[in-house]
Write a structure and sequence with these properties.
Elements (H helix, E strand, L loop, with lengths): L15 H29 L4 E6 L2 E6 H50 L16 H34 L4 H17 L3
Antiparallel strand pairs: 1-2
Helix pairs in contact: 1-2, 3-4
Amino acid sequence: MPNPAPFRRRHYFVKKEYQARFILRFCLIALAGALASTGLLLFFSQGTLTSTYQHSRLVVQTTSFAIMPAVIYTNIITLALILLATIVVVLFLSHKIAGPMFRFEKELLAIGEGDLSRRVRLREKDQFTDMAESLNRMTAGLGERVRESREAVERILAQARQSGADHALVAGLEALRADLERRFTV
């Protein structure tokens, strides 16, 4: 029987709000860098003069004014390419974070409801695999403690029945056993 293909997510926006904010922040950083670069270039070239020929005439003007159109066009093209690359890279990086976060939320809700048989399973290259393993060990430990408690209640209940203990005590132990069964899945 051939091995099944590894699980691949088909939706890259797992936690849309988080990923959109993550991408927007990186795009704003790229935009701020482009604006700072343009401003610094124009500022440092302000005290210099440049001579150019326009329509067969020699024109002398400040360097910052002469190069401004070329700098703006260059920055717009560069910024567009960098923003596109930033969106793609950050989308994939945030996916490696948002996917495990989504999985943790689902599993923690189920564990909080008492299902101690749940385990967090992440893909190999996802972030937080160490945390998932720690959570799985914790859940397994809690499950073991609940099993031990159930067994202890069963033993005490059996002893109470054998010794002819008070009916209220036996009923209370049966209620405790039923409550453990109802509240926890191990």
